[in-house]
Amino acid sequence: MQLPGTPLARRGIAGPRPFVPSVAGGAEPGPEASAWTPAEATVHRSPVVLLDGRTLGYSVRVDAAPGVDEDAVYLDLDLASLVADRYAFLPATPAMLDGFVPTPVVPGRLVLDLPVGFAATPSAPSRATALRALGVALSLVDYQAEPAQQALLPYLSFVVVDPTLGEALPSLVHAAHQAGVRVLARDVASTELLDACRAAGVDGLRGGYALQLGAGVVPTVPTQRPGPGAPAGPAPAGSGTRVLRAGEAQCLTILDLLMRPEPPVAEIAQVIETDPVLTLRVLHLVNSGAYALAHQVDTVRQAVVLLGPAEVSTLVTALALDARPDAMDRLWFILARAMTCEALADDSTAYTVGMLSALAEQLAVPAEVLLEKVGVSAVVADAVVDHAGPFGPVLEAVRRHEGCDVEGVLAVGYDPVTVSGLYQQCLRDALAIARTVTRTP
């Protein structure tokens, strides 16, 4: 029995291909990619991460085309697949402010971002009271400690501040903390801003760079920027600066062996057996209920055979992330990108491209360093490092979607609605796998 969601072809995820990648690395848009379907919407999520690296939740946003009932899209969201049991931060639409809100995965973990100017409306306290009575947490964006905002603090769980406020930032954080409200900074994109947030006592970050912070990476300005007005996503693979630790290098050695046309089972088992933790995790996984084996498996070699390369590589990737806070969330992100790349390209090579690019980001090492440890073809290397070749546009489209950049997805020849739909499906399946393999024996 396979773990849930693998391999991709058995999940029924592969959808219509909106473009055909050219060997030169460009894209020839098909009819579906020429315009955003007017009766559709895209769904985006970005992490909300505390400054200690723990994942607090995910900000979820719907981009609806004209004529689409945005509230209906929000009410229909599968929050369990989008945020797991974390906080779900949603922009408060007029209908949500009237009490029509999605059902949270965990009671109390649905957070509505109150719109700018809400605090100044006469009905703000009564509406906030009603929403809190429904079990909804509230967040105030663009907090500047104005009198009306201060009056609303008793109803809030979070405020969102601009990290570029300079000397005013510490006093804002102090005012919010005195009311028991946590402070999140938006769009932190430089070392200086991150240091300012730490010094001011900011609790966490919102935006694409929050994922880098959770991975232990200092946010940097990306070398490839999203389109105008789009939130920045994680920096491209290869933007990290540190070197691999011993345990991480060992995991990449195993991945190198697993990616060979005929993986050498005996050699893989031998490398795994040199690490007691990895040995325990492999045996625990194969003997878990996911496989329903009639007899216990006692040897690593037999476990490797039964699990297969895909499951072992996922487990090894999870172990490489174990030293980081919320390893499950990081593996979830890696698998979702890899699966979506595979679904868009309808080719398992794209899975490898997506996985290695995301792994480089999560380990915070240059992509070239990671690829040197893991033997891959020039096609995979070109896609991961330069977003070139037949799979470069595939990776670029998925990364643009992760950065909430609808125009960027269109620019590389893909339909944003198609990418969004596939990504949501892959998030669901990736979550099931990540939960299974990161479960501690």
Strand order of the largest sheet: 3-4-5-6-7-8-9-10
- What is the total tally of β strands? 10
> Secondary-structure element sequence?
EEEEHHEHEHEHEHEHEHHHHHHHHHHHH
How many discrete domains? 2
Which geometry do the CA atoms define? elongated
CATH class category label of the largest domain = Mainly Alpha
What value does the average pLDDT take? 81
Main sheet record? 8 strands, mixed, barrel
The helix content is 40-55%
Structural class: alpha/beta
Low-confidence stretches: 1-39, 214-240
Annotation field: number of helices: 19
CATH architecture of the largest domain: Orthogonal Bundle
Beta-strand percent range: 5-15%
Q: What separation lies between the terminal Cα atoms?
A: 20 Å
Provide a descriptive summary of the structure in words.
Helices cover 46% and strands 12% of the residues. With 441 residues, it is of the alpha/beta class. The chain has 2 domains: 8-31 and 244-437, Hypothetical protein af1432; 41-214, Alpha-Beta Barrel (TIM Barrel), CATH 3.20.20. The strands form 2 sheets. An 8-stranded mixed beta barrel has the order 3-4-5-6-7-8-9-10. It has a two-stranded antiparallel sheet with strand order 1-2. The radius of gyration is 22 Å and the shape is elongated.
What tags apply to this protein structure?
441 residues, alpha/beta, Hypothetical protein af1432, TIM Barrel, 2 domains, 8-stranded mixed barrel, two-stranded antiparallel ribbon, 19 helices, 10 strands, disordered N terminus
